[in-house]
């Protein structure tokens, strides 16, 4: 477990530096990624909370920040007055296009590029198995999500 944590924190530190250069925190970026690759660029707030592992109030704070910066907006759910959707805005999509090339290059340099395709497939399969056990809501509200880190990043 210690080795896993050391690898994760090392990669995460490098990615966070790059995100900060674009004025984003890692949670903001994760929310934008999840919105951008969801059908219609939107997710219910409850699904967003389940996918990110954030509390309801935590998701509200992130979405408030993204709204303030013009990267996302809220839309009322037409079938449930209590529910709402978070929708990525054109500015949010533009921010993703700005950030992603450098982000993907770092992932390739420090993660995917260091493993053979077979080793990467095995690692990703194993991580999905563990993720699905410990965070069963991690893919809530998403259909047809890319399975390859190279495609999904």
Automatic annotation (TrEMBL):
Span of domain HTH marR-type: 1-132
PROSITE patterns attached to this UniProt entry: HTH_MARR_2
Secretion signal span: none
UniProt-listed Pfam families: MarR_2
Name listed for the protein in its UniProt record: MarR family winged helix-turn-helix transcriptional regulator
Native organism: Dactylosporangium fulvum
């Amino acid at each position: 477990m210690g080795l896993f944590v050391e690898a994760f924190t090392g990669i995460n530190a490098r990615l966070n530096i790059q995100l900060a250069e674009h004025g984003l925190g890692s949670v903001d970026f994760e929310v934008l990624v999840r919105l951008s690759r969801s059908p219609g660029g939107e997710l219910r707030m409850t699904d967003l909370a389940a996918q990110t592992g954030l509390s309801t109030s935590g998701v509200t704070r992130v979405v408030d920040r993204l709204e303030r910066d013009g990267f996302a907006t809220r839309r009322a759910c037409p079938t449930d007055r209590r529910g709402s959707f978070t929708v990525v805005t054109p500015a949010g999509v533009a921010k993703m296009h700005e950030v992603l090339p450098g982000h993907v290059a770092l992932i390739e340099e420090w993660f995917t590029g260091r493993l053979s395709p077979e080793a990467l497939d095995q690692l990703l399969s194993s991580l999905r198995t563990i993720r699905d056990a410990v965070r069963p809501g991690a893919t809530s509200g998403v259909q047809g999500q890319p399975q390859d880190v190279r495609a999904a990043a």
